[in-house]
Amino acid sequence: MTEILEQDRELSPFQGKTSPPAVCIQDLYFSYQKEYILENVNLDIHTHEFVSIIGPNGSGKTTLLKLILGLLQPQKGSIRIFGEQPEKKRDRIGYVPQYFHLDLSFPATVLEVVLMGLIHKRQWFGFSSLARKKAREALEIVGLSSLAQEMFRSLSGGQRQRVLIARALVSQPEILLFDEPTAHVDTVAEKNLMDLLKQISRELTVILVSHDLGFVSNYVDTVVCVNRTVQKHPTNKLTGAIIRELYGSHVELVHHGFVQAQEHHNHE
Question: Does 224 fall in a domain?
């Protein structure tokens, strides 16, 4: 894994110095119209940290991801990715959205879908042999190198999600963002995906939105609770009182000793 994640990467300008957080948000306010969706947000996420973002429907979880990506701009406050504005560091961020809009009738192979992660670097006459090599290495990381020439539409839900992770990895990012990565897979695939993300987090900073706190709590280092404001907690310090405060009274006990809101997930 280390080879593809570090190959051809320039030395960090912070190497040998005290590095800034991978993500630093200060005094942030954001609204789509008049009412703030997020307010007074202060958050640091550090290099190689594995973080889950949780919160009730409409709390601003996906909005927070889009702000980190630089797709949205705050009305107040600042976001820095490795010390710079998000749009300047977008090539260091890989993103796997909740819904990947690919017409399954389109005849794309697994390798071609992964190569889409390099589309902004594509040469005029197609992808280079180096690009294809990187795509195969990304597929090897997610355990699907043997399916490179299979049609994407023929894969299972869990396999498709792994291909999309490879698509995010192929550009050699340093931060990976996921919006509900296990929302459309079965229980076995969910565990396999989380095992994979845990492995990847040893090399990269991994941030994922999830509504299944009881499950992801076995994997992530910290939890970011979002409900207009933001609070960050080490996973082992997360209590039922904190979750009740986040979700309100509509909670019930679930496995792993945590409480979790029983909600129908909605993409903000």
Answer: yes
